[in-house]
Amino acid sequence: MNTTLLATAIVAALASAGAAAARADPAVVGLLAALAFAAITIWAGSAALALRAPDDCTEPRQRPAIAQPGNEPTLTRGGVFGRIWIFAIGAFGLATIVPIVSLGRRARVAVGTVWTAGARVVTEQGRPLRPDDIALGGVTTVFPEGHVGAQDAAALLIRVEDNAMLTNHAWAPRGNVAFSKICTHAGCPVAIYRHADYMLYCPCHQSQFSVLFGARPVAGPATRALPQLKLAIGPDGYLVARGDFSGPVGPDDWNRPA
Known about the structure:
The chain is about 25% helix and about 15% strand. It is built from three helices and ten strands.
């Protein structure tokens, strides 16, 4: 039974280390580690009980004779049981090292969206837009041409007065300004625009973003501005992107390592 328990502990510890290295669900890693510790605990308990002699096997002790030098008895514990202990210690060591190594992983840098320089701005129906296609005070959801429906690339295109005191005015040809549609607080879609105060609203947690000041948050739980899409007018007269968004899209948690 002792050998079986140690073998179970070895297999469970190695499986826990493998699951951690493969970035499996933490619950799976924890259950396997718990199984390994449970097996080793049960083994230790059974070994402790086996060392206790029954009451009817006791006898008075006598003073042991002093052994002569060179005649001391040698106690060894080899064979299969000794080797399996070495494997058990190695398995637990590996299960300890893998999670520690995972703490040193470098954070991954967000790779951005499918917006690229020169990509035409199109509606949800795939229709490219000219600078005057949206009425003053109007708003519509847009995507890069060829990537309609790409969720992280969704942007709100808003038309304001061309002489409005816009931050990054050069990114808004003829008053066409665009920002990521994904709220930087919890990732909800920013879907409400009020032209009277040039304010974007997130309906989930009531964050408010000022369009004239680069979609900077002015109320609610959001702490970071909506990334802005740099726009220009292409040679064919249609609105095009000058590159990707000005910052990472969505909440900051989306850009942390998995």
